[in-house]
Each structure stands twice: as structure tokens, then as C-alpha cells.
Amino acid sequence: MPKDNTLNKVLVIGSGPIIIGQAAEFDYAGSQACRALREEGLQVVLMNSNPATIMTDADMADRIYIEPLNVEFATRVIEKERPDGLLPTLGGQTGLNLAIQLSEAGVLEKYKVRLLGTPLDAIRKAEDREEFRTLMRAIGEPVPESWIITHENQLTEPAASGIWPLIVRPAYTLGGTGGGIAHNREELYEIARRGLTLSMRHQVMVERYLAGWKEIEYEVMRDANDTAITVCNMENFDPMGVHTGDSIVIAPSQTLTDKEYQMLRTASLKIIRELGIEGGCNVQLSLDPNSFAYYIIEVNPRVSRSSALASKATGYPIARVAAKIAVGLRLDEIENAVTKRTLACFEPALDYCVVKIPRWPFDKFTSADKRITTQMKATGEVMAIDRTFESAFMKAIRSLEIGVYSLTNKTANLLSDMELEEAVRVPNDERIWAIAEAFRRGMAVEEVHGLSAVDPWFLRKLAAMVQLEMKLKTNGRALARLVKDEQAEELEQNHPLAVRLLREAKTIGYPDRMLAEFAEVPEMKLRAVRIRLGIVPAYKMVDTCAAEFEAATPYFYSCAEQEDES
Amino acid sequence: MKCILVLENGAVFQGESLGAAGTTNGELVFNTGMTGYQEILSDPSYAGQIVTFTYPLIGNYGINPQDHESRRIQVEGLVVRNSVDTPSNWRAETSLHQYLKENDIVGVQGIDTRAVTRALRTQGVMMSTITTEETAEAALLRLQNTPPYASRDMNQVVTTTEVYLWNRSSNAPLPIAPDAPRTETKRIALLDCGVKYNILRSLAQYECECVVYPCTATADEIMKCKPDGIVLSPGPGDPAHLGYVVNTVKQLIEKKPLLGICLGNQILGCAFGSKTYKLKFGHRGSNHPVKDLSTGRVYITSQNHGYAVDPDGLKDGMEVAYLNLNDGTVEGLRHKQLPVFSIQYHPEASPGPADSAYFFHEFIQSLK
């Protein structure tokens, strides 16, 4: 179906001020949507209270209102502008909540404003825990045992169920504010009380906590013609219990066989179809590391925080496509903006590995509790792309800008063995360095897995990286000799070990700065020798299709490879 | 151990040995799936080919005993960026490297597989060799004297030698007597040009047993098992070699409902007057969008084919029913009156999405 011709003017609601769980990703989504709508010849009216956004730039929309995001002000804007449609699913939870309130207050009906994209009913079904669980049971998708609590009297049932630990999540809050894991009756009451106060609907969910299970996410899209695709899947480094916003995330999943990947993909598509979502949706699932058992954890029936990551990880512009779907286009009527030759109706094939690491503000709030739980604490994130997990991981660490350049950080080195075990066991902002330090002190992968429940796949990669780091350290002198011999003719023949190590270090993305430190030579000198040896990065393109088709958008990442495409 | 990949056009890629040491030849193709290497390695449609995996980390979840798609590894060799020798998955029993080594399959790792893929995309698939034994010059010289992929009838290599049975209790082919009674409510005769086990597993889920025939079986032999329907399997190679299968199929049309999968689609196309042609670099991956022309709905499909049906020349009531959205090629045929239909992609998935599994259901519905 082509674009809906009864639409001329569309109101887009932004996400307001930046808060934890709702940061610049929604400005990114909203800006993309504004552009996508104007491409279709629509007039865009934008409402947002945050001036530090691209979407409020004069040329992003036809009319921009910098006003409080509440019913009163939104009503006035609607009254004045008389938009034909309202796009609620791109402004995060704030935009969505305001749209729901406008609908409930009868404002949309009064001014004949149609909600575009996913119907409100679908949003309610996804966001209301009880309705969602009933629906999942009806379609045979498993959900963990849980209880909806609206008054603390109701806590007696979960407390008596014998299921521990339990996870407490408040309904309709951002980034899981006010949630937590309860190991006993006292903790359950404490966390649930706090959650009830914070929830917009005075509602919390208490649920079986799937300790040690894998956490996997799928980003899915569906159009009004019921064509549905997955944009990508992502695997959390941290098992269940850490908010995905606080988890290190890898795309695509690494430890799932095709059978598992497809099983969870099929479940995600079944859910988006059953809910009747028209646009983007994020499905979080939990997979038993020892069987095919899985549970559906949560569905975000809108462009979500993870959508920005998924878009940049794959090259697939989720918000843009979601906006086009909302005004009536089908997935096979939307161009793939990266290749310009294929359509938005396909699933991206990655030929690289993506690592996201959250950035926490604990350097500014030194007295804050640095433990990482189900309530998101990260204020930002970095993403890195490379051809190997190791180099993407190393690149992401350097991008954090916390003065750490590798798997060595000084705080972890200073911990006692007991403290180190604790830092490996309890998720915290410095856990990856604690894990590396544990390997340095001779702990086995199995032990670290026993403490952290992090999948052995990731741990073995980190252990191998630590091993190479130690090899580089012990061979610092060989590296130094190579660097001092800088002017010699036959570098490779005269320093075979050092050159081999240098190459190996670069394949896993070990930075010059650290190599220079091990060799006790100036970084610039080491770099010069490396360049003379021809050990330089190549740049590859993110093209959504693993080079199967020619791509037009110059979006690149560096890697230790042969062919340069930049 | 050093190992090289040499392409017919003279390009040489330096890497490290993966799996067995030695030398292997085959048509070099690429697959863009991010999971499913075990299924791909054991898919008979890859016979005669060396597969480049575009996803750089291969071996992540090891090899398990359940996900084989035939009785052995079928690829001639494989090309990967990074072979992961420390797999992690609850079903993994061995690593990719060990598995290849035990089965004497030559592979190469440490290759810029994206560069290889780009070469194949721009110049088309070509013959190649992987060797740990020869110099690049010697390998290229030998490669230039190797018969091309399309010169061989690979189907007679991969097909079953004996008729066999597959039902719900099967983990592997079961022997069957020519006049054995049914073990399930419905019986399918399957003409094996290179079948994947998951086609048999999928049909068994619908309470269908399959009697699997060698691709050289005659129409009379096939009808002897009194099937309710007939399935034409996928398989490797240039369908132009398969005149004998096309003749068999012509005799089966109108006898029983017919479902063609992949190569089966090409064979049915040929039986209805069409010809096939070679695609520049084929369709191999788990993300190909296919449009159902009757509903406008699009499905993400698992594909593995190097040839396509030319829609010109289709006659006697056969028409194009599915198209590939990437390049507009024919992805399926449907007869206007008869219960005869075929798809160029893989409803059995393994690897890839299960979106088209409904096809089996439709086929079963057409059985009387």
C-alpha cells in the first residue's frame, strides 16, 4: 500500500530531557523520523522540551514547539496546528506515555487526530504486565512465573511460593527505575514498596529470577500487511539480572546455534504479529544455557534504547523505516538507504562483530553504589565494530575515555584475592578488568564462570587476550630491540619474534600505547616501526548485506585486514 | 601451518590451515548466514563447492550430533576469517577444526573473507583451490586444468544408493522393503537429488513418512510405493544435466500432488517448458526476501542456489508465484489447476528462518 493520502500534517513528540535510560538515542530516532516523514511530502510539527536536540533544529520540522511534554501543552499545540496524525512511538517512554494520556483525555478524538503506527491497544497489551502475560500464554509463548502487585498485601503469595530469588520490576517506568532482586522476604518487601511508589500505575511485577540464563534481544519490524522481519539479535555478555542498558552487548549473538537463533527469532516474530505492532519493536528473551528452554522477558512496542544500537550495528535505520510504516508504507516499498539498490524488506547480514559497553558516571559520583543490577545506571554507551570480537572489545574499552586502554586497569590490580572474587561475582562497572585480573592471577575459565555466570565463550576470549598481553609483556625487550633497530633494512628477518608478536597484537586490537609501555619506548617510535612494517589498519564498509550487494553509504570501521575499501 | 586460497582469476590469499592439511578444489561461493555453519557443511547442495563464510567468527558453538543435514560433510572445502576453537554451547561435542580434521576436509582460516566475497560479487563465482602443499603458481596452473563445476553431474554422487524410509522415529535412514506397509497416515515419495534431512524431519512432523528414491529412479518405480504425494528435493549442480530427472517428473505430473524444493523448482520449471541459467554469484544465505505474488506478503527465506528458472517459456498452466525482492529472479512456481507447486528456497530452514515452513502444511493439505 502506498502512503496514506489522507495525511498531510503529522505531530511528532520528542522524549524531553535526557535522563538515564532515555538519552540521545531518542533524538537520533526522532530526527530520522522527521526526515523520513518530510521525504514523503508530509508537514511535520515537532514538540519537545529539550533544546539540546537535533530534532529541534529549525530545518528538521515545519513547525517546532519547545514546550513542556504534558497534556495541557500538547492539547494547545494540537488545537493550534490541527495535525491529521500523531506519531507516538519514536519519543521513548515519555512520548508514548504522553500519547496515551492524550488519548485517554479524549483530546485525540476531539481534534480528530489519528494515532499512527502501532495501535494504542497493542501498546497497552505489551506494556500491561497482566494483559501481556495472558496474551503470551494464549499463543503458547513461555513467561516466567510472576505476580502483579498493586498493594503490598499481595506480596504474601510470592513470598510463600518458595521461588527465590525473585525479581521486582515496576510498571511504566524508565530504565527499570525502582526494581531489584530479592533473595528473601525482607528484601522482597523493601524493593516492592519502593517500586510501588515509583510506578506511574502503582504496579510492580514480581517474577522468577532466571539466574545465569542468557539474555538475548531481537529488534523486529512489522508493516500493516503483516510482513515481519528481524533487524538483528544481540547477546548480553552479562547473564540475566543486569539491565540490558547496563550490560555489555554483542551483536550478533555468538553462542547460539542456528536452531536456537531461529527458535528465538520465530518467537519474536510471532509476538510482534500477535500484538499487531506496525513499526519497530524490541523483544527480550532469556535462554537456558543448558537446554532449549526459554522465556519471554519483555517487549518494548516502540523504537527503544536498543534500536539506536541495532541501527548503528547493522546500518538498518529502524526509526526511519518505522516512521514510513506508520504513514502506510510497506517494508517492500521502502528503499534500503545504505545500498540504495535493495529494499528495507530483508534482514541485515553482519560480517563483523559489534560490542557495546555502557559508560557509567561513577567517576563523577564516587560515593554511588557501583553495583549493577536491574535498575539502569549507565548514562551513556560506546559501540565498536571490528572483524574479531577481541579487537571490537579493545576498541570499545578505549572509546570509554576513562583512562584505560586495555584489559589492565590499576584498581583491579590492587584488589586482594577476596575482593577480586567479589568483583568478578557481583556485576559492577569494573567487572571486565576484574575478570582479566583473575586470569592474570591464574584463575581458570571454569572458576570465573562459576563466579560470574558469564558464558565461557566470552571468558575464553578474555583469557586468551590476557595470555597474549602477558606474552607481550615478557617480550617487551624483543619489541624494544625492534623499535631501536628502526632504520635497519631487513626488520622482519632480524626480529622475527617481535614482528610476529606485533602482528598478533594488532589482530586482536592491542593499542600502540600499551605495546610501547611494555617495550619501554616512546609510543610514536613504536608506531613508526609498525607502519614501516606495513602493519596498518584497513577500513571496511558497514553495508547491511555482508558485501553481497554494492553499497552507496560511506560508513566504515577499521580492522587488521588485507583489502581497504575506504 | 601455512595455507593458500587461489582463485581461477589468479588472486591469491595467504592464510593458515583449518581442518585437514592437503589440497582441495571447487567452485568458490559465499554464504551470508551468521549462524548455521554445521548445516551448511553437511548440505548436499554444496557438493563440488568451497564455501566462504562472510560472518567472520565460525565455530563459535562447535559441532553437535543433531544438526547434520546429511550423512557426511558435503563441501569440498571452506574459507573463514576466524575459526573459533573454544566453542561454547550445551550441545557441542567437538570443535569445527577437529570435526573437519577427522573428516579429512581441507579449509583455510585467517582470510580476508570480505575481500573474497567482493571479488565473487564483481566477477562471479569461479573455481578455486585451497592447498597446504603447493606454491601459488603450481596451484593456479593445476586449477586451470581442473574441469569446471558445471561439467559434472553431482546429483548421482550425492543421491542415496538404496531406497530408504524416514518417519517420526527416524534419526537416520531406515531400510524399507519394496512393498512395506505404511507406518504413518500419509506417504510421500521423495526423489533424492541431494535431500537435506530437515525436509524429511519436517514432513515427519505432519505424520508423513517419506520413501526416498535415488535420482535415477523411474516414474514406475516411484509409483510402486503408492504415495499420496511426491517431493522433488534440492541438490547441487547445473540442472541442465538432469534431463533424465525432468523426464521422470513429466510422467509423474497429474498422477499425484507435486512439491519441488530448490533444484526441484528448477526441474519442475524445465518439465513445464522453461530453461535455467546460472546466476552471477548465486543466492546463499538466511536473509533473502521473497514476495508471494498472490498476497503481497514478503517472507525472509533461507537460500542456496546458483541457478534460476527463466520465466520465459513456462507453459501448460505453470506460472511464476514468488519473486526475489533483491534481484527479481523467480523464487517459485504454481500450476493454475493442478496441485503442482515449487519454491526455489528452503521451507525446511536449517539453517535459516522457519518463515516458509507453512509450505509443508499447504502441500499436506493438497494430498487426498
Give the topology.
The complex is a heterodimer of chains A (566) and B (368).
Chain A: E1 9-13, H1 25-39, E2 43-47, E3 63-65, H2 71-81, E4 85-87, H3 92-104, H4 107-110, E5 114-115, H5 120-127, H6 129-138, E6 146-149, H7 156-160, E7 166-170, E8 180-182, H8 185-198, E9 204-208, E10 214-222, E11 228-236, E12 249-251, H9 258-275, E13 279-287, E14 294-300, H10 305-314, H11 318-326, E15 353-359, E16 380-386, H12 389-399, H13 410-414, H14 417-425, H15 431-440, H16 445-452, H17 456-474, H18 476-484, H19 491-494, H20 496-507, H21 512-519, H22 523-532, E17 538-541, E18 556-559
Chain B: E1 2-7, E2 12-19, E3 23-31, H1 37-41, E4 49-53, E5 57-58, E6 77-79, E7 82-83, H2 96-102, E8 106-109, H3 113-123, E9 126-131, H4 136-144, H5 155-158, E10 164-166, E11 174-175, E12 186-192, H6 197-205, E13 208-214, H7 219-223, E14 229-232, H8 243-252, E15 258-261, H9 263-271, E16 275-292, E17 298-310, E18 318-324, E19 330-335, E20 340-343, H10 358-366
Compute the gyration radius of chain B: what is it? 20 Å
- What proportion of the residues of chain A is helical, as a percent range? 25-40%
Give the SSE order of chain B as H and E letters: EEEHEEEEHEHEHHEEEHEHEHEHEEEEEH
The CATH superfamily of the largest domain in chain B is identified as: Class I glutamine amidotransferase (GATase) domain
Mean model confidence by pLDDT of chain B:
96
How is the largest sheet of chain A built, in terms of strand order?
14-13-10-11-12-15-16
The unreliable regions of chain A are none
Count of alpha/pi helices of chain A: 22
CATH architecture of the largest domain in chain A: 2-Layer Sandwich
User: Which CATH C-level class of the largest domain in chain B is it?
Assistant: Alpha Beta
Structural class of chain A: alpha+beta
Question: CATH topology of the largest domain in chain B, which one?
Answer: Rossmann fold
> Average pLDDT value of chain A?
92
Pair with the biggest interface: A-B, 56 and 54 residues
The CATH topology of the largest domain in chain A is given as D-amino Acid Aminotransferase, Chain A, domain 1
Assembly annotation: heterodimer
The main sheet of chain B orders its strands as 11-10-13-12-14-15-20-19-18-16-17
Largest sheet of chain A: 7 strands, antiparallel
Query: Which runs of chain B of at least 5 residues are low in confidence (pLDDT < 50)?
Result: none
Give the N-to-C terminal Cα separation of chain A. 38 Å
